[in-house]
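ok so for the tutorial part 2 we go from a plain amino acid sequence to predicted C-alpha cells. step 1 is just haveing the sequence, like this:
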Amino acid sequence: MKLRIFAAFKNKQTTLEILKSIAVGLASNAVDFLFTAVFLYAYGHEHYDGFWGVFSGATVGGAAYTPATSVYITATAIGFITAVLLNYLLSSIFVFKYGAVGKNKLGFVKFVIFSVIGLGLTSLGSWIGYDVIGGNMWIVKLIVQFIVFIYNFITRRLFIFNVALIRNDEDTINL
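step 2 — the prediction. this is what the C-alpha cells look like for a chain of 175 residues:
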C-alpha cells in the first residue's frame, strides 16, 4: 500500500481550496486576536500602556498585569466566536467550490460543532506538547495549528461543504 499524502494536490480545485482555507484561517486568527485584545483593553485600559500593551505586556507602572480569569475567558470566547462566524461566512462564500451546500442551519450547526472540537484539540495538543512533553511553546503551537488546520479542512470539506450532501432548501441561510 502506497502512501498518497500529496495525491490531493494533483486536483487543482483541492489545491485552490486549501490555499484559500489557509488565507481564511489567517484572517480568522487575526480577527480572534483583535477582538480578544479589544475586550481585554476595554476592561483593563487603565493598566496597559496603550492598546498595544495588551500584546506586548507593557503596563502603565511597569508592573506585570494579569486580568481576572473571568475577563480573560470572556475575551477569549468573544474572539473565538467572532472568528468562527467570519470563518463560516468566508468558507461558504470564498473557500469551497460547493460552499452553498453548507449555507443552511444544519451546515452552520455542524460548522460550530467541528470548530469547538478543533478548539478542544488545540487545547489538548498545546497542553500535551507544552506541559507534558515540555516542548518549546511556539514550536508546539505551530505543530498543533497545522494538525488542527488539516482536521478543520477535512471535516468542512467532507461534512459541510460537500455537494454530495443532501441539501434542505427550506432551511437555507441567505448570506
